[in-house]
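Working notes for the structural subgroup meeting. M.R. asked for a predicted model of this chain before we commit to crystallization trials. I am recording the input and output together here so anyone reviewing the notebook later can reproduce the run.

Input as submitted:
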Amino acid sequence: MNNLRHLFQFLANYFYHPILSLLYPNFCKNCLIPLEVNELILCETCILELPKLRNEKHCKFCSSLEFLDMDSICTSCQYGFREIHHFERNISIFIYEDLIQEIIIAGKFGKRPSVWRFFGREMARTLQTFIQSNSIIIPVPISKKRLMERGFNQSTLLAKEMSELLSVDYSDKILIKIKDNNKQIHLSQEERIVNPMGCYHVRFPELIKNKIIYLIDDVYTTGSTVNECSRVLKEAGTGPIYSVTVAKRD
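Returned structure, recorded in token form:
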């Protein structure tokens, strides 16, 4: 099998990408070797080389690598949350750069559900060692307008995959978005902090009473969206809330 993989890697250097995809459509998006049946998007070798955060010492709230002390808070969180954090901490699996950034963008705008299955699997692997009973997985919702434009909510796809793999309750009906807001990516840090305020609402609060919440999203930047979602969830009577994201953008 290794010889076959090396052959495809050799061919990939000489053939245009779409031509190779016609011959062997399921290949690693990084090194272009054929994928095994149980592999998604990337081969196991390339997965091991991805820029992961989970073994690093980082800011206890957002996973930033700015501080080496696990009990420290980075300057971004100190600035962004002058009042209060409504969630315990953020757990990001990867650093938002290079290949991870490319895959996330391709998954979001290229309508590739296998991308979110792959990331959901990696997030579940990280959570399986410490996820607690009495928990529920909830995706960060998007507006109806954004859902119509994109056709899916990537956070929902992530949450569904994680729920299935971890055998943990899941719902995308409890936390909803009631007001559209500007896209965070175009805003300054100060604008990002206030932009999500008043955009989210909790339905069926009895279903999350005292529950441990795992709030799922794709990319963590300032944490303002997660914090606002956590605020309304906490007001509805939940227990501790943990943000779990694919990647941390510095």
